[in-house]
Specification:
It contains seven helices and 14 strands. By secondary structure, the chain is α/β, with parallel strands linked by helices. The strands form two sheets. The protein has a nine-stranded mixed sheet with strand order 1-2-9-8-7-5-4-3-6. It starts with 13 loop residues before the first strand and ends in an 11-residue tail after the last helix.
């Protein structure tokens, strides 16, 4: 595994506003971390947060694979940094567990199934939901925020643009309108909601950085974590669904902005080079099946 220089300084600072009505807003310096001075998180765990079967892959690969079934993984990640824990996405709702009919965000297109609960997996390493300091959301599609309500005392981190979007007027795409309605229902009104404006250093030492990658939704974000032995790892969110899409700059038809999607993929591509990073693609089942699964971890 690659080893990177030990860090002591920080490259991004938070600026917090007053807590108003249960919602905290944050402003971030647009600069990304200096790879030579970034701090370290201790552990990165992969959680199985569901899997799905879609009946038309071409929705994600426009112009190709029309009418072909495709199976996707749904992955959550847990990061330990000192005495604090950050959960990246919350997956398919726990009520789906072992339901043969599954659960869906878009019933005519895709069905999700759940083999393990997120609370059960946390318990495997001695944690409960109350131990989670932050719940960071890549975006508000239901398979990513299905269990936010299980973490009422955690601070929920999401981009302000995403929060604004799900409350905006419906557009012409019925699928997108349906996803927004479900998002409002599943997100609810978190007691501790922190809205972000762009790239944001979570812990103030560049060990965990939220990266603004709009396009899939207006406020989509990715996450970069820095580990002592594994180096920099970028968790994709849904900036890309499949490795082949990343290679071809291919944009799913459900994305809200094609140009922004391509720009965000370019940003991640540049970061992979700058940080000599690995990219873990959330929904790419072929890749996910090769990655460590809790209780194993990356360090």
């Amino acid at each position: 595994m690659r080893k990177h220089a030990r860090a002591a300084s920080i490259s991004i600072l938070f600026a917090y506003s007053l807590l108003i009505g249960g919602t905290l807003t944050a402003t971030a310096d647009p600069k990304l971390p200096d790879p030579t001075t970034a701090g370290f998180a201790e552990k990165l765990y992969r959680l199985n947060c569901g899997h799905s079967l879609a009946n038309d892959e071409s929705v994600w690969t426009p112009g190709e694979n029309v009418g072909r079934n495709v199976e996707f993984s749904s992955t959550c990640w847990l990061i330990k940094r000192g005495s604090e824990w950050l959960l990246w996405d919350t997956g398919v709702p726990e009520a789906t567990l072992n339901d043969p009919k599954g659960w869906s965000t878009l019933p005519k297109l895709i069905v999700y199934h759940l083999d393990k609960t997120i609370t059960g997996q946390l318990a495997e390493i001695g944690l409960t939901t109350s131990d989670i300091t932050y719940v960071a959301l890549s975006h508000t599609h239901g398979d990513h925020i299905g269990n936010v309500d299980l973490f009422p005392n955690s601070t929920v981190l999401m981009q302000r643009a995403e929060h604004t979007w799900i409350s905006s007027r419906d557009g012409t795409n019925d699928n997108v309108n349906q996803l927004k309605a479900l998002a409002r229902k599943l997100l609810g009104t978190p007691k501790h909601l922190q809205l972000l404006d762009g790239d944001t250093d979570v812990f103030g030492d560049a060990s965990v950085t939220l990266i603004s990658t709009p396009g899939h939704t207006p406020g989509s974000q990715s996450l970069m974590v820095h580990l002592k032995n594994s180096g920099f790892i970028i968790l994709s969110g849904d900036v890309v669904h499949l490795e082949e899409n990343f290679e071809k700059n291919r944009v799913p038809s459900l994305n809200t902005d094609k140009a922004a999607s391509i720009a965000s993929m370019g940003k991640i591509r540049q970061m992979l080079a700058t940080y000599d990073a690995q990219l873990f693609i959330n929904h790419d089942k072929a890749q996910s099946d090769t990655l460590k699964l809790l209780p194993a971890f990356y360090d």
